[in-house]
Amino acid sequence: MDKNALSAMLLFIIIFLVLSTPSKGSDPFYTDCSNGTSTSNDSLDSSFENNLNLLLENLTSITPLTGFYNTSIGENPDRVHGQALCRGDTNAITCQTCVKAAGQRLLEACKSRSAIIWYELCQVRYSIQSFFSMQVYTGKYVDRETQGKNISNPDHFNEVLMYLLRNISNEAAYDASKLMFATGEVKFSQEETIYGLVQCTRDIKEADCLSCLNQAFGDLHGCCYASEGGIILSRNCNVRYELYSFYDASGNLLTYPTSKGDKWQAWMIALAVTIPTLVLMVLIGSCVVYQRQKGGQEEDEKKSQLALLQELASPKAISMTQASELMSSEELPFLDLSIIRAATDNFADTNKLGQGGFGSVYKGVLPDGKEIGVKRLSRKSWQGLEEFKNEIILIAKLQHRNLVRLVGWGIEEEEKLLIYEFMPNKSLDFLIFDSERRTQVDWKTYFNIIGGIARGLLYLHEDSRFKIIHRDLKPSNVLLDHEMIAKISDFGMARIFGDNQNTDKTKRVAGTFGYMSPEYAMEGLFSIKSDVFSFGVIILEIISGKKNSGFYLTELAPNLLAYAWRLWNEGKELEFIDPLLMETSPIEEVVRCLHIGLLCIQEDPEDRPTMSFVLVLLGGEPIDLPEPKPPAFFASKMVSVNRPLTTDPSVDQIDSIILPR
């Protein structure tokens, strides 16, 4: 074989290897098949499958030209929509290789009508529903070794990291030349530099890109705080940071102003000159640093608040279902801060109803005499900001007799305010755990409250335009109006499901100990059956007058749920009922509710009833109830949550925990 033939063969092999294997990250970061992964028995409609194959071929061939492409193939009902995005620092060959590999992996792993896959250098998505130009945040964590390596000064690290990410996110969103992709680096010590990358799909608006990234920053804080690296993936935006350069910086590198390491270096130089010069430099430097940090923080806060204000106040503000339906938000009244201050007497302590995990709640009276409840979110809290936005967008769409009504909102600089209809009878926990008030309430009222909560959950799970999982149902989040009608409140932790979606998983478990279902507390899995579990706990607390969270580790049982089931199993269920109810209530109806509560707290989610079936059972239909299976006896030995003190149990208290993976 001559030299020319050998060279040609070697060149062919090299080209083949380059085109057939991704240069980075041969394994995907995350694959979401929506309806599950493929099995040997799964198959797609031949027409849809042909359209999908043609779509993926088009994405593979056209995306490398610009780094982003979306298109649709076929006719309904087998029309398929697809989108591919390559990382902004890839070249055409690398982009094509990655998109091709992603398409092949989707065909192998997913037998569903919608799916998305993320590689390090690209992402590919397809669906039977059009999703172009629609921003839907669905943050995913990526498990990596760097997330287990902690840095020594997390507070300072997070401050510098957020400074970097907010700067490059503004650049990605609003600098057209960046094509919604930006990288940057900033030193956070003399030896270490933080490298950051943000990117959005190019079909969404600038404000939607910034909104998506801001939500991702919240999840990044939850999964990767104090870690040396972290990645958040969503359908429309991605965020990543490392302590090493992981991107091709040519043409995209951003260098940010001096960090504290540089200032200390200047200090050392000054020290080497003279002591008097050192003193002068330290004084001047301290003033400059203080003013610069103060101004930078205020500017960042103003930018984030302005973006949120524009998103919520705009008539085109949108909220999305997981099924990718675009819906225009009805505008809620925006109340000026001066009006709210006047209504609450400048947030006077005498009007304060209590303290919650995200802020305080005050009673107020508007100029027209209407009483309101004002939820004042904690200042400079990114977690509070996300809850604020989530609650406005979500509750604006929900109208039901058994859901609390949001009547307005306000935002000005550091103030974030939610305005609710006033509930004169406070929350359910005041009623069932206060021995004095409990004597003033009859069983009929309790039974109506149970039915009201059930109807509110049924609306959320099945009857509203969304499928919504509350995730933090508890007595303090059930408010009571002047007629003692139950109204579910606090949707800051709620999640929206698509029409065909039944479960989801999170690595940042947030809720309240004693009301979280076992699969959610231990594995991060949640569904409508998670709310059913919480509902069952509330029923048992109403009947017994005891708190589940305050009952565990007694001589009677590990917790209230185990105690209830043990007595039921031994035929001693009447011992579980509060003696006050025994004296004045129809015992058969109370026992039936106890039975329903036990069915709701069964360990296996599949065994728990739906809320529609619960309402049938509460309606007194002559239906034989199945025997309840044991609840999960998980207690404080398995889950530990530190809960801050509250001044008023009627106010929501969110306890966030991160469980071991």
Automatic annotation (TrEMBL):
- Domain of life here? Eukaryota
Which stretches make up the Protein kinase domain? 347-634
The UniProt keywords, alphabetically, are:
ATP-binding, Disulfide bond, Glycoprotein, Kinase, Membrane, Nucleotide-binding, Receptor, Repeat, Serine/threonine-protein kinase, Signal, Transferase, Transmembrane, Transmembrane helix
What EC numbers are recorded for this enzyme? Answer: 2.7.11.1
Recorded hits in Pfam families, A to Z, give:
PK_Tyr_Ser-Thr, Stress-antifung
Q: Which SMART domains match?
A: S_TKc
Task: List the PROSITE patterns.
Answer: GNK2, PROTEIN_KINASE_DOM, PROTEIN_KINASE_ST
Q: Signal sequence span per UniProt?
A: 1-25
Q: Name one GO cellular component term.
A: plasma membrane
CDD domains, per database record: Gnk2-like, STKc_IRAK
Tell me the compartments it is located in. Membrane
Residues in domain Gnk2-homologous? 30-131, 139-246
Q: Membrane topology for this entry?
A: Single-pass membrane protein
Q: Name one GO molecular function term.
A: ATP binding
Top EC class for this record: transferase
Q: Which reaction does it catalyse?
A: L-seryl-[protein] + ATP = O-phospho-L-seryl-[protein] + ADP + H(+); L-threonyl-[protein] + ATP = O-phospho-L-threonyl-[protein] + ADP + H(+)
Name of the protein this chain belongs to: non-specific serine/threonine protein kinase
Q: Which organism is it from?
A: Hevea brasiliensis
